[in-house]
Design brief:
The chain contains 19 helices and nine strands. The chain is of the alpha/beta class and 560 residues long.
Length: 560
């Protein structure tokens, strides 16, 4: 297959149709005996946002923006890497909620409509900026990027991006892992182990339905771990997970190699824990010293949806006139307390290349030192939110592209690897009990147990208890009773999503997060009450099944 050179920039080469028979052998790994390894993980997740009851819902744009700015650029990067013989190998967690939305026919049709409007707007911008050389060059870049996205989405992948990710998994470039079914923050659910188990078991089942294989690893939602969780992971066949740095550093006993080698969990010795490397994380995440803050990169917050005249931009924002981001932005970050200057994409790519080289150099020096004091090659685990690359950090996919190519051709110290690859190479590891932790602010549960959101948990625990009791009291239900119990399980899981508590804490879109939480709880309670009183309304069950249609293979008995 031939892919666009970059759907972030100009391209004259368009890809041919995607076919299952295009599965061929991955290029050989560049360095057979490295001193150490870099394990990149991209956590791709969005909450389940699907609103068939309305023609337009602003929150569905979260998905559409991520497809355009992150998921399609990642697939383009992988395709070009394969065509050029680059030995790319990294891990991506595709959460069940995200996969369900990417596979949904309604949302695919709405994305097609969204992208068509973007291309129409970009065409108008090319005309509007014709007398402004720098802006005009950027406008043409957007037009070509959006057109490339449409070709990838409609022609190459025929609307199904999951087939693309599965293709690159099958040829060995990706290791796809799962997360919690609806990204429920598991440490706040440990009062009900059955509810925790259900989040994991349904995720594994959903993953298999999309990728035709069980996931070997899991990104715990919000990287939230508590001692004992590994026993539930073992029951579902999961063989590794990740912890925040201190979750492994303060394990009992202290790990001999810190976070630079996995440990097996004391209560489930077949399950390995990998710790996040703080140094490589800071290079990308840190607001003060991370690469995305460079003044040459594109400014995320300066968008024409807010800058241009309302009569001009109105057809491309919220239909009721609320200004929103369009994705077309003409300014670079510039620097603190300075007037914004025009964005130069070519200059930004030059900087991205420098930053990729700097990241690689620092990892080389890190590996060289660690290898000198360890009895095995170290593994540097660097996990990031996938949506950082392209959505928040516009040049992020190009940074990854430069990094993969530099690792392949400009050094001989480290190689790319996945956690399961490393475990296959080094099957004997220290046994420890990791520490309760998350990667949220403060490192524990401050974000999800905050005064802004802690009211939700008494309700969630209550309906978890009711779900478990209902499942046990109806061991072999069928017909409308079974459908009711399955929908109760869906509503419970959707209410448990950690995204709602996070949004309440962050202070953005709070009304939406509160409404979603209350709606799913109310739906569950009505279904439960109808079940208890033997007065189930088939029309209400059908309505919820059509609106909240996640997990069609749901089996409520997972709660029993």
């Amino acid at each position: 297959m031939v892919y666009p050179t970059s759907i972030h920039g100009c391209s004259t080469v368009l890809p041919g149709p995607f076919r299952d028979e295009d599965t061929v052998t991955l290029p050989p790994v560049a360095h057979s005996s490295p001193k150490g390894y870099l394990a990149l993980l991209l956590h791709a997740h969005l909450p389940f946002v699907r609103h068939p009851e309305a023609d337009y819902m602003m929150e569905e744009n979260w998905l559409f923006e991520a497809i355009t700015e992150t998921y399609l650029p990642l697939l383009s990067l992988l395709g070009n890497g394969f065509d050029d013989g680059i030995p790319i190998r990294f891990t991506i967690s595709l959460t069940p909620t995200l996969c369900s939305m990417l596979a949904d026919d309604l949302l695919k049709e709405r994305y097609h409509r969204h992208l068509s409007k973007l291309i129409e707007l970009a065409e108008k911008e090319v005309d509007r900026t014709s007398s402004k050389k720098t802006f005009h060059r950027t406008a043409r870049m957007y037009r070509e990027k959006f057109s490339g996205c449409r070709y990838l989405f409609e022609t190459v992948y025929e609307g199904n991006l999951l087939n693309g990710f599965r293709h690159f998994q099958d040829i060995g470039m990706l290791e796809i892992i799962t997360s919690g079914a609806t990204h429920g923050y598991l440490p706040t659910m440990q009062l009900n182990p059955n509810a925790v188990y259900a989040q994991i078991a349904v995720a594994v089942q959903s993953h298999y339905s999309f990728f035709n294989r069980n996931p070997v690893g899991i990104w715990l939602p919000e990287c939230g771990y508590y001692p004992g969780l590994e026993k539930l992971l073992e029951k579902t066949g999961i063989r590794y997970f990740f912890t925040e740095t201190h979750g492994l550093l303060f394990a009992d006993p202290a790990p001999q190699h810190g976070v630079y080698a996995p440990v097996f969990c004391k209560d489930a010795p077949v399950v390995a824990a990998f710790g996040r490397d703080d140094e490589s994380s800071r290079a990308v995440w840190s607001a003060g010293e991370g690469y995305p803050g460079d003044p040459n990169y594109r400014d995320f917050y300066r968008d024409i949806g807010f800058d241009l005249d309302i009569d001009y931009i109105k057809p491309y924002i919220d239909p009721i006139g609320i200004r929103i981001n369009t994705g077309i932005k003409y300014y670079r970050i510039t620097g603190r307390n300075r007037q914004k200057t025009a964005y130069d994409h070519e200059e930004a790519l030059r900087v991205a290349g420098e930053h990729a080289g700097n990241f690689m150099f620092n990892r080389e020096k890190q590996v060289e030192y660690l290898a000198s004091i360890m009895d095995r090659p170290p593994i540097i685990v660097a996990p990031y939110d996938a949506e950082l690359f392209g959505h928040w950090w516009y040049e992020g996919p190009e940074w990854l592209n430069f990094l993969f190519r530099k690792i392949a051709f400009e050094q001989r110290t480290l190689s790319l690897i996945t956690p399961s690859d490393y475990l296959a190479l080094h099957p004997q590891n220290q046994v420890c009990e990791p520490l309760f932790s998350s990667w949220g602010e403060g490192g524990y549960s401050d974000v999800w147990l905050h005064e802004s959101n802690n009211w939700i948990y008494r309700h969630l625990h209550h309906i978890e208890d009711q779900m478990i009791s209902s499942a046990k009291n109806n061991p072999s239900a069928d017909g409308i009773i079974r459908r009711t119990l399955n929908q109760m399980a869906r509503e419970l899981m959707l209410a448990e999503s950690s995204d709602w508590a996070f949004i309440m804490k962050s202070g953005t879109m709070v009304d939406y997060a509160v409404r979603r939480t209350k709606e799913h709880i109310a739906n569950f309670l009505r279904l439960h009450d109808d079940l208890q009183k033997n007065r189930i309304d088939p029309n209400f069950v059908s309505l919820l099944e059509s609106h909240n249609n996640i997990f069609p293979e749901m089996d409520y008995s997972v709660y029993a």
